[in-house]
Design goal:
The protein is an alpha+beta fold. The chain is built from three helices and 16 strands. The protein has helices at about 1-25, 50-60, 70-75; strands at about 30, 35-40, 80-85, 90-95, 100, 125, 135-145, 145-155, 170-175, 185-190, 195, 205-210, 215-220, 225-230, 240-245, 250-255. The strands form three sheets. It has a seven-stranded antiparallel beta sheet with strand order 3-6-15-8-9-10-11, with no helix packed on it. Keywords: Coiled coil. Pfam families: PRY (PF13765), SPRY (PF00622). It comes from Pleurodeles waltl.
């Protein structure tokens, strides 16, 4: 009897994981008005088994700890501030150049050829770029909304909508913006097609690791040390800058 019950529970757990994965893959991304929005399909399956969440994480193959990760994060960490001269008119930058807030009210900004001005690209860059070496920085989510975090080529056209792909000179991950209060947000790597990320938990702080000569950009949950995604064989070929794009009420802070 015990063996039969356990088998039934495992079947139910497997169904739960399959539904969860299907839900991840059936999010429909829409563009509405000025900023992107997402319709999230939320499905729930009740599984009569204690610890199902932990087992689900195990089935996903989550490994959130690396004994050496914290050490090299601190060794390679660089101080990043924002360049207000690049900030979109749909962003508010703090006086210390470390805090970014998206806004629905268009800001009055000075003309600058380095500024992002396209209404579909509410972006800002870091003040320091890189042409060599390995570097690491962190950005904390203060208010949920939509955001994209990564790096971008210095030469990207800032007066047109950004091409959200490595082929367009951008390497970044994306947090879907969901107005539905039941939607916890979903994450993807901006590849072609987008790569949906199956995460153990929503990251509160994103760690960004750039290996210029190695042609790699890796992103982490800086709190749990979970690896989120790595862009490999990236053709940087010029100065690369920290990149941030926000909408839907999002707020980020460099830490």
């Amino acid at each position: 009897m015990t063996h039969e019950l356990t088998s039934k529970r495992l079947v139910l757990l497997s169904d739960e994981v399959n539904v969860w994965k299907h839900t991840q893959n059936t999010a429909i991304t829409l563009r509405k008005g000025r900023h992107r929005s997402t319709r999230c399909w939320i499905l729930k399956v009740l599984v009569p088994m204690d610890g199902s969440v932990d087992m689900q994480r195990g089935l996903q193959g989550c490994s959130t700890q690396d004994s050496n990760l914290q050490e090299w994060m601190q060794e390679l960490k660089v101080a990043i501030t924002l360049d207000p001269d690049t900030a979109s008119q749909w962003l508010i930058i703090s006086e210390d150049h470390r805090h970014i807030q998206s806004t629905e009210t268009e800001q009055t900004v000075l003309h600058n050829p380095r500024r992002f001005t396209n209404e579909y690209s509410p972006c800002v860059l870091g003040s320091k770029g890189f042409t060599s070496g390995r570097h690491y920085w962190e950005v904390q989510e203060l208010q949920k909304g939509g955001w994209r975090v990564g790096v971008i080529r210095e030469s990207v056209n800032r007066k047109e909508e950004v091409q959200w792909l490595p082929e367009g000179g951008l390497w970044a991950i994306d947090r879907y913006y969901c107005k539905d209060v039941t939607c916890k947000g979903m994450y993807e790597a901006l590849t072609n097609p987008p790569t949906v990320l199956s995460l153990c938990e929503s990251p509160g702080t994103i760690g960004v690791y750039l290996d210029y000569e190695g042609g790699q950009l890796s992103l982490y949950n800086a709190d749990s040390k979970e690896h989120l995604y790595t862009f490999k064989q990236a053709s940087f070929s010029e100065e690369i800058l920290p990149f941030f794009c926000l909408w839907g009420g999002a707020e980020l802070m460099l830490v």
